Amino acid sequence: MSQKQITPLGWKIMVRLAEQQLTRKQFCEQEGIPESRLSNLITGLRPAKKYRQIVIEKLNIQDEFVNS
User: Fold this and answer.
1) How confident is the model over 1-52, as pLDDT tens digits?
2) Which InterPro entries does this entry report, sorted A to Z (predicted)?
3) CA angle centred on 41, ends 39 and 46, rounded to 5°
């Protein structure tokens, strides 16, 4: 089974979670986001538009990813 690629936004999400010492699961529970949607944002498998802005805002990710 091959690993899924991680998008530039996905790397930024993972870095910000590590900086805040949060797991994906903890962050999703805290923000009410399904883990599958966060995974979709990280891999780019689906756009997860409904949750994209929430994740970007809550993790204080730079503007370069806001409209991409």
Assistant:
1) 457 799 999 999 999 999 999 999 999 999 999 999 999 999 999 888 899 9
2) Lambda_DNA-bd_dom_sf
3) 95
